[in-house]
Amino acid sequence: MSEALVLKSPATPAKGARGSGAQVETFKYDNSIVRAFAIATVVWGIVGMAAGLLVATQLFWPAANLNLQFITFGRVRPVHTNAVIFAFVGNGMFMGIYYSLQRLCKARMFSDGLSWINFWGWQAIIVAAAITLPMGFTSSKEYAELEWPIDIAIAVVWVIFTVNLFGTILKRRERHMYVAIWFYIATALTVAVLHIVNSMEVPVTMWKSYSVYAGVQDALVQWWYGHNAVAFFLTTPYLGLMYYFLPKAANRPVFSYRLSIIHFWALIFIYIWAGPHHLLYTALPDWAQSLGMVFSIMLIAPSWGGMLNGLLTLRGAWDKVRQDPMLKFMVVAVTAYGMATLEGPTLAIKSVNALSHYTNWTVAHVHTGALGWNGFLTFSMLYYLFPRLYNTKLWSTKLANYHFWIALLGMVFYVVPLYVAGVTEGLMWKQFNKDGFLQYPNFLEVVQSILPMYMLRAVGGTLYISGTVLMAFNLYKTARSGKFVPEQEAQAAPLTREGGTGDRPWGHRWLEAKPLTFTVLTVVAVLVGGLVEVIPMWLVKQNVPTIASVKPYSPLEVLGRDIYIREGCLGCHSQMIRPFRSETERYGEYSKAGEFVYDHPFTWGSKRTGPDLHRVGGKYPDAWHYNHMDDPRSVSPGSIMPRYPWLLTQKLDIPSLPARLKALRSVGVPYPVGYENGPAQKDLEAQAAKIVLNLKVGSVTASTNREIIAVIGYLQRLGTDIKATPVATVTTAAK
């Protein structure tokens, strides 16, 4: 069956598109690179899901980390998110693009060498992430935690992929670019921009850096990246893959060519504006929050247009859907995409976000997309590709159907309990009794109430990964039953300069024949929203008003903050008190933009598994913090926080202090020139000695050069700058 039969739009290319009497050429598609990415997709998928199951288990059984430093929740969670996003979905994306692009362009990839550099470079990045993140080397930015050497490697490998992509498009034998290629182009360009802008950082050591942005500006840039990483890494490439694999498997043309045009241009233009909806009711200026909300709501139209275009393509093919497990997975994937893209804008409405933010509702929403949209579509592609790569039939259709139902049940058990937990958290946090006091002032009351939901979530995760293992076995047996076809021969006429006689000169069909023009317009559509939101935050000082009493962190507090980041504490604790009565009653004065001007990076967090910490300074004595880090349940019965006994024994990294202070000064923190060469260490020792004396009052004996001392110093500083009597020690840098 030819590609054109299934994939052509209603506006079929006119005769003569390749020129009259063109000589037919014989060439070969490269299947080896597709197989490599397919195997990597399966392997890393199981690894990423296993890491997710481990952290899910730790939420109701903290001892599951075996008190080991390298597998605590805070360190393994970014391993899970990076493995699932960049290893599982990333390899799946490359797998699908390398297979479909060659056939849509009727050309082998531009360079086999670049293809393999892309593959091995990407795997090396994943391995580096799997090693460095458990070791605590993290920038702390969500979905962008990898440190600067790996960030550079990501940029290099992504450029290699982009060159290979555009090189293939330019040497194509099809004049008009099919809709899937539009989404591939948008993905390649936008991900590069997002990654580079968000990863601007100043290196301190080989595995430590500070973001060049601070506080509110850093938060805006991060969630401009974070939201659009979901948009342009997890969504647009997979929409392109949907537009290829769904019509191919169903043997039907795409439902509506015009709808695909509207879907593409509206989606890439609107999506980039929506990042600030992750920061509603925070210290971000209201104008940016409102822009994020408005454009998020607008996203419903193009997103559902794409979903309907996919589902309506299956009209008349429902008997085939019932028989073909590949199509079953595809239908659920597209449906999950529709559900997630309706729920996302709903959660961006301020009144809804006031309830949902920082709760498990957001986690459920994310996993509807991750498990349903990305997971099921990846499974669908794998079931489609393996029989074709090995020139055989799927080893067991029955096993594939079992996988479908097990994974679907797993997804339900995963997300439904989290929705229940999220709504429960939001309501309990805000509930007041008849006397006007918080009904549940103890945060642990809320935590205890949702523990059964965490357990059910782990059951769902177990089912989902079990289905994936079942798929891996089925694909292995499929490969064993056939013979791999490393190169697939094909024939097509070369592309000539002549245009088709039926082309309208300024229609979209004309644009599809002009990849460079198309690319320029795509860049413009994508960049407008980002520039409008980000540039004013840099240029207009009123967007980040300063507070005179806010001073830089002391040297000890700098080290303590870096340990806090290393341990992933901001994965469970926010540092942003929203202007709600329920939050000010529980935590204290709401957070101000000017309080974060020296925070490189920002640490607002996105989930409250534990309470907010922005006003924790001075709330408890030093000995309480010491005992809390050693064994949280000794001071907070029922806590699900892991133990951190190594903080009590590991020595502070004092030799690195000068480099840290220099780097912070280079990004705008006003430490005096030369302060790091002597005065800083004296201030550190004085503040550490004071904390040790305070600990003795609480019957705790500790050394001044242990990590726990710096962590206590940092925690006791939080939120005290705008108090009348700050708890933190006044240092030379803070005078």
What does this structure look like?
This protein has 735 residues and is mainly alpha-helical. The protein is 60% helix and 3% strand. The protein is built from 27 helices and four strands. It has helices at 3-7, 32-58, 73-105, 112-132, 148-170, 179-198, 215-232, 236-250, 257-271, 286-298, 300-312, 318-323, 325-347, 350-356, 360-389, 397-430, 443-449, 451-481, 508-512, 515-539, 555-566, 581-587, 622-630, 632-635, 657-666, 679-697, 707-717, and strands spanning 25-30, 201-205, 208-211, 487-492. A two-stranded antiparallel ribbon has the order 1-4. Strand 2 (201-205) and strand 3 form a beta hairpin. It is globular.
Mean pLDDT over all positions: 92
How many strand segments? Answer: 4
Are there runs of 5+ residues with pLDDT below 50, and where?
Answer: 1-6, 9-20, 499-503, 724-735
If helices are DSSP runs of H or I spanning 4 or more residues, what is the number of helices? 27
Radius of gyration, in Å, reads 27 Å
Please estimate the helix content.
55-70%
Which structural category do the helix and sheet elements fall into? mainly alpha
Strand order of the largest sheet: 1-4
General shape: globular
Strand coverage percent: under 5%
Task: Report how far the terminal alpha carbons are from each other.
Answer: 76 Å
Main beta sheet: strand number and arrangement?
2 strands, antiparallel
